[in-house]
Amino acid sequence: VNFKEWTEAGVKASRATTHRHVKEFGYSCHIPLVKPLLNHRQHQRRLTWAKEKKNWTVAQWSKVLFSDENKFCISFENQGPRVWRKGGEAHSPSCLKSSVKFPQSVMIWGAMSSAGVGPLCFLKTKVTAPVYQEILEHFMLSSADQLFEDADFIFQQDLAPAHTAKSTKCWLNDHGVGVLDWPANSPDLNPRENLWVLSRGK
User: Fold this and answer.
1) How far apart are CA 23 and CA 68, in angstroms?
2) Euclidean distance between CA atoms 165 and 22, whole angstroms
3) Of all residues in the chain, what percent carry a pLDDT higher than 90?
4) Which of 10-14, 152-156, 167-171 bottoms out in mean pLDDT, i.e. has the lowest?
5) Phi, psi of 108 (to 5 degrees)
6) Domain spans in the chain, listed from the N-terminal domain onward
7) Is the pLDDT assigned to residue 1 strictly greater than 60?
8) Coil, helix or strand for 43?
9) How far apart are CA 172 and CA 67, in angstroms?
10) How far is the C-alpha of 120 from the C-alpha of 140, rounded, in Å?
11) Tens digit of pLDDT for each residue in 53-66?
12) Per residue in 183-193, pLDDT tens?
């Protein structure tokens, strides 16, 4: 129930009183976390995947080469939405968030395993199937060599069109790369996402 609804219902309480009692109940204001919007089929696929993988050992997961692409904004658009300031500092340069019409960004591909991280690929063009296969050739294979040496590994990728294209599947098959089955729209299952978050904090 918001403050306006309380007032219309005849509840006599100031905004400050209401906020104080809300805090007493253990509530505080936060920016909501963002999660992918999943349909019923995707929910079921994720559940099935989790059940299939729940008994995997550390040794099995250690054979997985996780990969992901992520866009980093290099303009001011990625600044946090809150600042700590004193009274009268609202217009202080250090308390303002700058904006630009066309924010600059860069797309980066990276891979990691339990043994560490591989080299990053900075992308200057849209990731089409041919571009993605170049990434696999020059960065994924070198990451696998670095992290697994001569040991077998399983490659993880999401279901982006360039990843699931027929030509990409043929490339992976021709190079003897096994692919981990992966539920759609599930970035939260990929530990590489946590590394991106840490990178953004630098």
Assistant:
1) 39
2) 52
3) 55
4) 10-14
5) -125, 135
6) 1-30, 41-200
7) no
8) helix
9) 14
10) 9
11) 999 999 999 999 99
12) 999 999 999 88
> Structure tokens of 194?
């946590």
Both tokens of 87, joined, read 């009274």
Q: Given phi > 0 = left and psi -120 to 50 = alpha, else beta, which region is 149?
A: left
CATH 3.30.420.10 fits 41-200, yes or no: yes
**Nearest CA-CA partner of 119 in 81, 146, 154:** 146
β-partners of residue 117 are 112
Q: What distance in Å separates the CA atoms of residue 159 and residue 183, rounded to the nearest whole number?
A: 8
Q: How far apart are CA 111 and CA 92, in angstroms?
A: 41
pLDDT tens digits, 42-99: 999 999 999 999 999 999 999 999 999 998 876 655 545 667 777 888 778 877 776 6
CB contact at 8 A, 157 and 182: yes
